[in-house]
Write a structure and sequence with these properties.
- GO terms for molecular function: lipid binding.
- It comes from Guptibacillus hwajinpoensis.
- This is DegV family protein.
- May bind long-chain fatty acids, such as palmitate, and may play a role in lipid transport or fatty acid metabolism.
- This protein has 284 residues and is α/β, with parallel strands linked by helices.
- It is 44% helix and 24% strand.
- The strands form three sheets. Strands 10-9-8-13-11-12 form a six-stranded mixed β-sheet, with helices on both faces. A four-stranded parallel β-sheet has the order 2-1-6-7, sandwiched between helices. A three-stranded antiparallel β-sheet has the order 4-3-5, with helices on one face.
- α3 runs parallel beside α4, α5 runs antiparallel to α6 and α10 crosses α11.
- The longest helix has 15 residues.
- The protein is globular and about 55 Å long.
Length: 284
């Protein structure tokens, strides 16, 4: 029996790849006002961005423990080995909750192999990881072999380079001060950030989105490896035009041919806002 790959909605995988690789997606929760929505089930990215542009505030919370346990038990009852790849523990408590629930389920089903992995990543940073794991699973690799592959590649070499269109959303999440957000918005300053050890870290500030795209490609050149052949991820906050510009710049610079382009989903988008542009690739 092949290993089942599970991840969650913040991985921002396109529906066609979820279907192609038979990946199970557990939803995080988006909260607006007094209403709670399952990400990708009750609310989708475009609905979120429309609400944010109209002044709504959004928060998020973890996968409900009962929903997570139900998923783990379902596969355990089938004797199905599985790997759950979780949103970074530096961003969410989902990994810690999953580890506790996995241990509870493992006590009841001690002969079923279950793995919970802290991706140390967000969005397609671990969406690409799930694709790679699913490809290995479809080729009959064991859970241990898949876990080892992820440990030596994606878990240690995944780069996230991204920018946001409006610093206000990062300010709401406590990532920048209110004063910095105001000044940045007035001057059209775009922060360039990355993820380091699973946490959000600023790199620099640049004025103007076109310059940001160029800088993202420059950083990719400095840090990337095998850029012509690896699978590259690009996500955007309802701004496909910028995503396509970034793709074209990467193709021109490196001859890259393999891309996954998708919207930043409602979970991550609640914190990054419309106009986000993110790039994911493997480094040296």
């Amino acid at each position: 029996m092949n290993v089942k790959i599970i991840t969650d909605s913040a991985s921002d995988l396109p529906d066609e790849l979820i279907t192609k690789y038979d990946i199970d997606i557990m939803p995080l929760v988006v909260i607006m006002g007094n209403d709670e929505f399952y990400d990708r089930e009750d609310i989708h990215a475009k609905e979120l961005y429309k609400a944010l542009r109209e002044g709504e505030m959004a928060k998020t919370s973890q996968i409900p423990p009962a929903r997570m346990k139900e998923t783990f038990v379902k596969y355990a009852e089938q004797g199905q080995p599985f790997i759950y790849i979780a949103l970074s523990s530096g961003i969410s408590g989902t990994y810690q909750s999953a580890s506790i629930i996995k241990n509870e389920v493992q006590e009841e089903f001690p002969n079923v192999q279950m793995e919970v992995i802290d991706s140390k990543a967000a969005s397609l940073g671990y969406g690409l990881m799930a694709i790679s794991a699913a490809e290995l699973a479809s080729n009959g690799k064991t859970a241990d072999e898949i876990k080892q592959h992820l440990s030596t590649t994606y878990l240690t070499h995944m780069e996230h380079i991204f920018t946001v269109d409006d610093l206000e959303f990062l300010q709401r999440g406590g990532r920048v001060s209110r004063a910095s957000a105001f000044v940045g918005g007035m001057l059209k300053i775009k922060p360039v950030l990355h993820v380091e050890d699973g946490k959000l870290v600023p790199i620099e500030k640049i004025r103007g989105k076109n310059k940001v795209v160029k800088r993202m490609v420059d950083i990719m050149k400095e840090r990337g490896v095998n850029l012509q052949s690896q699978l590259i991820g690009i996500t955007h906050g309802d701004d496909l035009e910028s995503a396509e510009k970034l793709k074209s710049a990467i193709q021109e610079a490196f001859g890259s041919e393999r891309f996954v382009i998708h919207e930043v989903g409602a979970t991550i988008g609640s914190h990054s806002g419309p106009g986000t542009l993110a790039l994911f690739f493997l480094n040296k």
